[in-house]
Task: inverse folding
């Protein structure tokens, strides 16, 4: 950030009065431009014993398999965002069962949320950011070709929890210390 | 938003190619300025049978009682943000038990998260945004003087769940349709 989005003058980084962190502050109009983590909402789409995965057509991790997920939009609930992304990336018609995993990724200022969801039908197909959509049995999950640790961990928890048919919400952290 | 924070030229609202929503886009450098919901993280601070509440010194809802909570910062986990806010608003030393409530508030593009937390000691006191900090028994909770619906609902669920000593994570929505 170099310029104030309100008045167009230059911003500088400093600690505003009463604050304890560096913020971008406009030298002209004094507006403080806060920057905050973003939410990525997605689904774990389930059909009987199978899970729907999407092969990514875009970077990062093009060609790797993911659960449908993307940035939550203003004006949207987290569940609505998860269903929208499932529709956009897999053209899939799903319904929310319940929140399942929540991950903090502080090194990239992101918070991921995955909902367990039921596919209403099998009319799914690749969306614009997807090369392929496919239902996987547990034994066919491409563990070495999953796009992100949040995908791997959500699937691992799911197959573990499925044994007891109990799916408590799991609040998790993926912490990578970039100073080392 | 009127100006591009990268180059200082004017932005206009339009639907970028491949997108389906209006965004602020720079007419000069073509940067797309996405705007996304923000996370508010907080604690339900517990000491034996009591809950710590804070009387707000600032608007909105100055003079009303709240749980310590505030905007999650970049580089922070949701649990760390909840503890930081508990420290800043109540000078309280707490430890996380577990995630408890998660609320989508789409009309203001916010997502609230409250963690159940245990007070490590009773050395709490008002922070800068707080007039008073006090431990409340259930029968003394000032239900008519609580600051926000997310506070009321978190406390209601807690006292209900405490009867069975089972505290499942609750994913909730507070939807206010501003068109009416």
Result:
């Amino acid at each position: 950030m170099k310029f104030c989005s309100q008045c167009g003058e230059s911003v500088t980084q400093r600690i505003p009065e009463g604050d304890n962190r560096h913020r971008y502050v406009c030298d002209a109009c004094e507006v403080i431009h806060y920057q905050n983590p973003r939410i990525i909402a997605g689904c774990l789409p389930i059909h009987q014993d199978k899970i729907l995965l999407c092969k990514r057509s875009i970077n990062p991790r093009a060609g790797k398999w993911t659960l449908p997920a993307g940035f939550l939009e203003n004006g949207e609930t987290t569940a609505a965002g998860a269903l929208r992304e499932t529709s956009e990336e897999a053209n899939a018609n799903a319904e929310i069962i319940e929140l399942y995993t929540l991950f903090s990724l502080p090194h990239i200022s992101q918070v991921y949320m995955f909902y367990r969801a039921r596919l209403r039908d099998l009319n799914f197909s690749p969306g614009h950011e997807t090369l392929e959509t496919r239902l996987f049995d547990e034994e066919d999950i491409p563990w070495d070709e999953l796009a992100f640790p949040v995908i791997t961990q959500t699937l691992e928890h799911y197959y573990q929890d499925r044994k007891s048919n109990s799916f408590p919400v799991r609040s998790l952290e993926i912490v990578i210390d970039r100073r080392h």
